[in-house]
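Please fill in the sequence for the structure shown.

STRUCTURE ENCODING:
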């Protein structure tokens, strides 16, 4: 009897694994290419956000000029008909529109980034941004299960007709000159990255990743923090949606809200006053004091991670003022050598206190 039970369990696992693998994947060479794929479900087109295509489903290439390729149908395990082609067409360009969103209040506006086809706008992500102070508020996007993902591209950053000398403001010498003027001394640790808020890694293809390189999607982020613990949190989200923590539930679609809190202050060299730091005109492109990431799943599971935007650690009192610290998810581990003090917070008190506009959103 135990042998029969083992046999039945093994057969069940075999058929389960077989059913999972019986699908098509958009291979890495096509994701790395200049391709933009659309899904088509019952005549409704949308951005193909995963490299996984179920048998019987089709994708299309969206071409510059607003036309699409013939249907590329997943016929059997990893067999598209007709075969995927990298030379079918040049991809459409992303567009940015202003949309109504109650989570984004004046003077900020909600900018949605996406693509248009047949007069319909297909959103990739949206960012609340104050175009007067050139200050990022928060972003909202969804990330989907994937197997393959293109490497990070390095396109030029887009200003989207926002007024402001972004490129010069973020340039190292200009930043140091700004800090020298305002603080009375150079600040050797103040090297700021253009820190993505909706990250390029949230999307699978080169074309989709490139759409995130926009100044309305960036904050001045300490280089060590951006490439340190903040990057660790980003990697954890990717691992979650890829299925690395599916022991009790399948986290194949996650909604993510990312925001900035406060303006970072540094001490003046002579009078010891704490000076708020901006990269432009002393009142534009603020350097945030904190960044947070709210990750939610339809099951009701929710996680909040809070990162201090400095190489040094904040005081316990400063953390307690905005975060009820709890243990992080078991898959989220931080090494002490990485910069950027990060804690995990009790989600609902954090949102109520710091981001009430995102209540019910993330």
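FILLED IN BY: designer on duty
SEQUENCE:
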């Amino acid at each position: 009897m135990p042998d029969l039970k083992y046999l039945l369990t093994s057969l069940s696992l075999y058929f389960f694994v077989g059913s999972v693998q019986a699908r098509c994947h958009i291979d890495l060479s096509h994701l790395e290419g200049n391709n933009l794929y659309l899904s088509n479900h019952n005549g409704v087109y949308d951005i193909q956000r995963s490299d996984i295509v179920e048998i019987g489903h089709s994708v299309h290439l969206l071409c510059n000029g607003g036309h699409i390729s013939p249907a590329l149908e997943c016929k059997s395990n990893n067999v598209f008909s007709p075969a995927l082609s990298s030379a079918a067409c040049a991809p459409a360009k992303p567009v940015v529109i202003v949309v109504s969103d109650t989570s984004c209040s004046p003077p900020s506006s909600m900018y949605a980034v996406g693509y248009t086809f047949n007069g319909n706008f297909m959103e990739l992500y949206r960012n609340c941004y104050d175009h007067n102070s050139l200050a990022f508020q928060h972003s909202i996007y969804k990330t989907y299960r994937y197997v393959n993902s293109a490497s990070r591209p390095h396109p030029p950053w887009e200003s989207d007709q926002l007024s402001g000398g972004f490129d010069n403001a973020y340039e190292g010498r200009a930043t140091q000159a700004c800090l020298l003027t305002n603080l009375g001394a150079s600040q050797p640790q103040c090297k700021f990255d253009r820190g993505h808020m909706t990250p390029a890694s949230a999307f699978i293809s080169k074309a989709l990743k490139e759409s995130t390189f926009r100044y309305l999607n960036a904050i001045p982020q300490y280089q060590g923090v951006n490439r340190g613990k903040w990057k660790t949190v980003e990697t954890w989200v990717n691992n979650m949606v890829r299925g690395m923590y599916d022991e009790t539930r399948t986290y194949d679609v996650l909604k993510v809200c990312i925001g900035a809190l406060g303006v970072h202050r540094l001490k003046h060299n002579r009078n010891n006053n704490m000076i708020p730091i901006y990269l432009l005109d002393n009142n534009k492109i603020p350097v945030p004091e904190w960044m947070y990431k709210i990750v939610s799943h339809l099951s009701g599971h929710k996680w909040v991670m809070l990162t201090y935007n400095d190489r040094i650690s904040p005081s316990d009192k400063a953390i307690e003022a905005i975060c009820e610290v709890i243990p992080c998810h078991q898959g989220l581990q931080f090494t002490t050598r990485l910069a950027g003090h990060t804690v995990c917070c009790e989600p609902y008190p954090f949102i109520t206190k710091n981001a009430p506009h995102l209540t019910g959103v993330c």
